[in-house]
Amino acid sequence: MNLILLGPPGAGKGTQAARLEKLYGFKQLSTGDMLRAAVASGGALGKEVKAIMDRGDLVPDDVIVRMISERITAPDCRDGFILDGFPRTVPQARALDRVLAEKGLRLDHVIELRVDDAVLVARISGRYACASCGANYHDTNRKPRVAGVCDACGGTEFVRRKDDNAGVVATRLKAYHGQTAPLLPYYRERGILASVDGMASIEAVAKEVDQIIGKSGK
Ligand code: AMP
């Protein structure tokens, strides 16, 4: 099954995508994670996109489309994929349609996670992740069971994203409302869009997502 999770930064796309991957084997493809890995590796792509990402602006469409079109036919996407953070513009969505048609693939569902801007700012500015396994935490909403120790792997080092600060979040939200929100009518017209209240608990959102994709949950 091939899915898109659509929503502003902090809406919970990564959390839900990780759960879907773990339970059902659809591969989570996060363009943000891919770009952060490219920056960390210090190669040409990373150098090209670092300043753009630090500002909270969008990386050029052609860079992203090239990256994702190579990725979706990798063997680990055999059982399906979940696009997390892509597409983010209408030209990206059109390019995705072309790539999918060329490869004989299709989208099953586009799921929007709806969250108010004020809630997003609070969520994003408190979030951090385990440096070893990437498990996500939050200063107030989702603390590790034992302070300073990752629940998932026992790691004791944590990292915060450089662009998760109030100034950059404002730019990222502006990019979402200006450039990404127009994807909602794009997919609604195709009859594959479903919207979920992303302000509900992680478990409640997961339940709704499962219903949309026709899974009973586990
Ligand atoms: P994310 O982890 O999805 O919040 O993405 C972090 C940053 O990576 C964004 O603020 C953009 O600079 C860049 N980025 C990620 N995905 C895309 C995309 N599909 N199109 C353009 N830029 C992207």
Number of strands: 8
Shape: globular
If you compute it from the alpha carbons, what radius of gyration comes out, rounded to the nearest whole angstrom? Answer: 17 Å
Strands side by side in the biggest sheet: 2-3-1-4-8
**Biggest sheet: strands, sense, closure?**
5 strands, parallel
How many helices? 9
Give the proportion of residues in helices: 40-55%
Order of helices and strands: EHEHHHEHEHEEEHHEH
**Which stretches are low in confidence, meaning pLDDT under 50 for 5 or more residues running?**
none
Bound molecules: adenosine monophosphate
Termini separation comes to 17 Å
What does the model show?
By secondary structure, the chain is an alpha/beta fold. The chain is 47% helix and 15% strand. The chain has nine helices and eight strands. A five-stranded parallel beta sheet has the order 2-3-1-4-8. It has a three-stranded antiparallel beta sheet with strand order 6-5-7. The protein starts with a strand and ends in a 5-residue tail after the last helix. Bound molecules: adenosine monophosphate. The site of adenosine monophosphate has 17 residues, from helix 2 and helix 3.
Nutshell version of this structure?
The protein is α/β, with parallel strands linked by helices and 218 residues long. It is built from nine helices and eight strands.
Give me some keywords for this one.
alpha/beta; binds adenosine monophosphate
How is the secondary structure organized here?
Blueprint: E1 3-6, H1 13-24, E2 27-30, H2 31-41, H3 44-55, H4 61-71, E3 81-84, H5 90-103, E4 109-114, H6 117-125, E5 127-130, E6 136-138, E7 158-159, H7 166-180, H8 183-189, E8 193-197, H9 202-213
Parallel strand pairs: 1-3, 1-4, 2-3, 4-8
Antiparallel strand pairs: 5-6, 5-7
Bound molecules: adenosine monophosphate.
